[in-house]
Automatic annotation (TrEMBL):
This is DUF3277 family protein. NCBIfam families: gp105_phage_fam (NF047581). InterPro entries: Phage_KPP10_Orf10. It comes from Candidatus Faecivivens stercoripullorum.
């Protein structure tokens, strides 16, 4: 079986904003914050599994310098700091691979650091979600 990956067919939306201006290498990283299903082994060898109820994620989005999405993320972060009402839906979909990641509520939890040098640098934004779902 042959699978085809095309980064142009990975789409992401934060609220009504379609995220664009992705960096040239890794541009989206999705990391679960919960512990999944860890096991505890007792002294007699019995095993107990615990299902973590934490279905929250950190999503890192790396953008090119000058991306309009950076301005959108910064505005959202600023609004959230002032009013606390900037949480929005987040959806990420790989149209070729079938991945769908979605959260009803997500927010910019960490602004991108700014570095300047001889060439333009990428900016990495961190979004944190409420309960989210990932399907492959």
């Amino acid at each position: 079986m042959v699978h085809t990956y095309n980064p142009k067919e990975v789409i992401a939306a934060f609220g009504s904003h379609i995220i664009s201006g992705f960096a040239e290498d890794t541009f989206i990283s999705i990391e679960a914050k919960g512990e999944g299903i860890p096991a505890t082994v007792g002294c007699d060898g019995e095993v107990v599994r615990s299902v973590s109820p934490d279905d929250t994620y950190d999503v890192k989005i790396t953008l090119l310098y000058g991306s309009e999405s950076s301005s959108y993320f910064q505005s959202s972060f600023n609004r959230d700091k002032k009013t606390g009402d900037a949480a929005q839906s987040l959806i990420i979909k790989d149209l070729k691979g079938g991945l769908v990641f979605s959260a009803d509520q997500a927010w910019v939890s960490q602004v991108a650091s700014r570095t300047y040098g001889k060439t333009a640098n990428s900016r990495e934004w961190t979004l944190t979600t409420g309960q989210a779902e990932m399907n492959e």
